[in-house]
Design brief:
Number of helices: 3
Order of helices and strands: EEHHEHE
Radius of gyration: 14 Å
Low-confidence stretches: 83-87
Number of strands: 4
Largest sheet: 4 strands, antiparallel
């Protein structure tokens, strides 16, 4: 399956590459608590990843493989953690 973006109330939360529809549905169901981040009313949906989101997934996957990990153990990456962090204070 191609990379999919999980959206919470329409906001991209993570990009994953499930093996099939059953795997995608299981992730959304089992990961709902993490995805909703404390907002139990939030709606979780998904859509195919766009070009930029797919590139983010591929970069993270490449890093995973460069560390010597096997392909089967990599599933996805949070998108919310990709925000620019403030630089160190001097």
């Amino acid at each position: 399956m191609l990379p999919q973006v999980i959206l919470v109330d329409g906001v991209p939360r993570c990009v994953i590459r499930p093996t099939d529809q059953k795997n995608l549905d299981r992730f959304v169901r089992n990961g709902k608590k993490w995805l909703q981040a404390g907002n139990s009313e939030a709606k979780c949906t998904y859509r195919p990843a766009d070009e930029v989101e797919s590139a983010i997934w591929k970069d993270a996957f490449g890093l995973h493989k460069a560390g010597g990990a096997d392909e089967e153990s990599f599933f996805g990456i949070p998108l919310t953690s990709l925000a620019v962090a403030p630089g160190p204070s001097e």
